[in-house]
Q: What sequence folds into this?
């Protein structure tokens, strides 16, 4: 399973919108209907699932699915470069 | 005669001396401190306060839940100081304004708040002492007339003995800032007796020495009094949730028996419960999500749908709703473990007398505040003939259980328990050149802005509809960047027509919906 699929499945668990209908432009709060706490739990899931550590300040600036995916990508690239 | 907070705390330290009082995580390691060690630290900080000449000094705390935060707070309120917990999520400029308005002379702050500390040094001349809540302060340098120390240094440099004075029952020991309907936050002044009578009147039977996981922000009256002061009085082992990212993981680590939550958390945890397959038993799911020991969730701060009370019962967890406000130290009524009624906010505490005026709930008793700090008009409006006007409408049933069925004031109560004054945000945003009229409402658990663009601005810049919307969204985005998440506007609707107004030219809040506008277009 690729990252994007795992990632959207995770979001769908907190939203009424199905994973296949989630697009990068959608905002977590307004369009996907996540509460501020749902969003934080989702970020915690992201850390556990992808074994990464998020910068809390940066993570809370994320607005859309695309923002989150890019941030995840940048962290994973950093891990790869480090390795 | 009323008991002082120091008596309640020291009594518990003596009775539970070898038990763990606080547990917290540093990375993945669990750290802990016993009641006896906590009692010694608090006393040493108090001695140091006296040694430094502090007496009735206004001391602010800005930081996340930590051992050092609560030790400092306890030292203040069991001595003679006035403790002022502030919301660490607020932008620096708002915190500076509050520090100035609250006449703060000593600041206790998380060590990583460098920009705030710099701003305090240049803009708050009254503050002569800054105490860093964590040891590491290599990057912060003291200025000539401002002393910077860590709490550790305060403890290690404490004198052997001190006079160890304590404030009287009627003295103010804490000021808690809360949203004001006029747009300026108000400092709720609480006395020794206000707090101690609330701690003693909250009756929770059979949970002494339990493990409690504290997940709410510590500067909130509900968390501060019920998790910490009440928990410590019962000999509870209070465990600290280090981040809302990891609430579920931390429940697994600390295995709490009791938690205090706001409705938003209950709703979010419920979603987590639903993520498990139906093939697992509810008991097994509860073990996975809650750590297997959770029996009671106390909730307050906002309305909770009774659906969740039933849903959690299936997982073996009793959700007990209560009611309060900072002005009442904070608990007014609560459902107990053995006596409770679903849908109600419980029976009033034994020290709270309830009355109604035109449906509004009024409260009188030993936990009702002394007033708002330096706000005589707001105090007179809220406290009339000894009765506190809550701004909530409600009724008592034949068994003495209290219910809420509306609000008198405009405050927006989000399900995370945050009270938002729409006027505060409207007044701020109305200053933006592109905004003509604005109304803020609470919808879908977040804030929504209804905006009518400033027509002169639109004409001067020759903006079409889309450009106007873009300009307004850009303005809102800029505003959001500086705000804590609960004050951010998550949805914007740009009107094509001005708002409907009353004869006194006030916008009629009940008529701002999109449907209403579409109906007149």
A:
């Amino acid at each position: 399973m690729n990252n994007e699929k795992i990632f959207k499945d995770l979001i769908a668990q907190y939203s009424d919108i199905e994973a296949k209908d989630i697009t990068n432009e959608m905002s977590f709060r307004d369009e996907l209907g996540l509460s501020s706490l749902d969003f934080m739990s989702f970020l915690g899931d992201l850390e556990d699932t992808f074994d990464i550590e998020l910068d809390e300040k940066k993570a809370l600036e994320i607005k859309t699915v695309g923002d989150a995916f890019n941030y995840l990508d940048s962290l994973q690239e950093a891990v790869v470069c480090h390795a | 005669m009323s008991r002082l907070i120091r008596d309640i705390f020291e009594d518990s330290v003596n009775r539970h001396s070898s038990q763990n009082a606080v547990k917290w995580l540093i990375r993945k390691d669990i750290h802990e401190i016993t009641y006896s060690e906590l009692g010694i630290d608090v006393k040493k900080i108090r001695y140091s306060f006296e040694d430094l000449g502090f007496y009735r000094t206004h001391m602010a705390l800005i930081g996340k839940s930590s051992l050092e935060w609560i030790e400092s707070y306890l030292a203040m309120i069991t001595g003679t100081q006035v403790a002022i917990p502030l919301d660490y999520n607020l932008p620096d400029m708002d915190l500076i304004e509050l520090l100035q308005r609250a006449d703060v002379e000593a600041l206790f702050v998380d060590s990583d708040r460098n920009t705030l500390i710099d701003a305090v040094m240049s803009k708050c001349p009254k503050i002569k002492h800054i105490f860093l809540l964590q040891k590491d302060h290599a990057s912060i340098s003291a200025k000539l007339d401002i002393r910077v120390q860590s709490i550790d240094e305060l403890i290690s440099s404490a004198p052997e003995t001190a006079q160890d004075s304590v404030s009287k029952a009627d003295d103010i020991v804490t000021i808690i800032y809360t949203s004001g309907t006029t747009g300026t936050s108000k400092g709720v002044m609480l006395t020794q007796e206000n707090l101690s009578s609330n701690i003693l009147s909250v009756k929770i039977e059979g949970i002494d020495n339990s493990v409690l996981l504290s997940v709410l922000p510590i500067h909130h009256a509900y968390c501060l009094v019920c998790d910490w002061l009440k928990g410590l009085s019962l000999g509870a082992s209070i465990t600290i949730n280090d981040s809302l990212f990891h609430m579920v993981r931390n429940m697994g680590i600390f295995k709490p028996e009791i938690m205090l939550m706001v409705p938003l958390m209950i709703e979010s945890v419920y979603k987590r419960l639903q993520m498990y397959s139906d093939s697992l038993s509810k008991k097994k799911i509860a073990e996975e999500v809650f750590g297997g020991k959770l029996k009671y969730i106390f909730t307050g701060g906002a309305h909770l749908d009774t659906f969740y009370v039933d849903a959690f019962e299936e997982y073996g967890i009793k959700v007990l709703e209560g009611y309060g406000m900072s002005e009442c130290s904070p608990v007014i009524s609560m459902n107990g473990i053995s006596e409770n009624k679903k849908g109600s906010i419980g029976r009033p505490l034994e020290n709270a007398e309830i009355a109604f005026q035109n449906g509004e709930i009024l409260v009188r008793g030993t936990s009702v505040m002394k007033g708002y700090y330096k706000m005589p008009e707001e105090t007179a409006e809220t406290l009339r003939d000894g009765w506190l006007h809550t701004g909530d409408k409600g009724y008592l049933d034949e068994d003495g259980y209290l219910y809420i069925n509306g609000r008198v004031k405009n405050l927006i109560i989000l399900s995370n328990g945050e009270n938002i004054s729409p006027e505060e945000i409207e007044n701020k945003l109305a200053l933006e050149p592109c905004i003509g009229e604005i109304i803020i409402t609470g919808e879908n658990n977040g804030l929504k802005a209804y905006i009518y663009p400033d027509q002169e601005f639109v004409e001067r810049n020759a903006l079409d509809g889309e450009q106007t919307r873009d300009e307004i969204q850009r303005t809102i985005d800029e505003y959001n960047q500086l705000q804590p998440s609960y004050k951010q506007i998550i949805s914007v609707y740009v009107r094509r027509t001005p708002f409907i107004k009353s004869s006194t030219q006030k916008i009629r809040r009940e008529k701002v919906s999109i449907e209403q506008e579409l109906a007149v277009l």
Notes: The longest helix of chain A spans residues 65-82. Chain A has four helices and no strands. The domain at 3-82 of chain A is CATH 1.10.1200.10 (Non-ribosomal Peptide Synthetase Peptidyl Carrier Protein; Chain A).
